Recover the amino acids of this structure.
């Protein structure tokens, strides 16, 4: 339900509704969001403070295709979310071996067509780097607050 999605993500209802209206997320069925839709919303939310929304949606369309679940995607949104978090957990703040960590995370990924794994790897690298950059930005802002007091 929309209220549950908003409670868990911290997003405003109008934000989620706007994303659906703009076709960044497929519409709920009987007012209920699927795991796939929820994972897409959470992924977008994790990246929205550091990447412009059009860049996020372009990146998701690049690997997942249309949010309506068509067969043009390389991976389900929920699988992407789990890969994203897996690489984030293994990376921490250290991006030095990100390519290796992505390669290990995707070891069992079966690409639906040639080049799929390379595209997914590139997208994960962008997503993880952007998320970590956002976290570092938050830390920097906290440090600025500390010296300002």
């Amino acid at each position: 339900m929309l209220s549950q999605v908003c409670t868990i993500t911290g997003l405003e209802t109008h934000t989620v509704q706007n994303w659906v209206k703009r076709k960044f997320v497929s519409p709920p069925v009987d007012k209920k969001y699927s795991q796939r839709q929820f994972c897409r919303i959470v992924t977008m939310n994790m990246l929205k403070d550091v990447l412009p929304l059009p860049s996020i949606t372009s990146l998701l369309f690049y690997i997942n295709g249309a949010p309506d679940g068509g067969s043009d995607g390389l991976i389900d949104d929920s699988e992407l979310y789990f890969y994203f978090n897996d690489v984030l957990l293994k990376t921490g703040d250290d991006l030095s071996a990100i390519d290796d960590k992505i390669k290990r995370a995707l070891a069992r990924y079966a690409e639906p067509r040639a080049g799929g794994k390379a595209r997914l790897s590139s997208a994960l690298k962008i997503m993880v780097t952007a998320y970590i950059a956002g976290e570092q930005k938050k830390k920097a802002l906290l440090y600025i607050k500390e010296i300002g007091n």
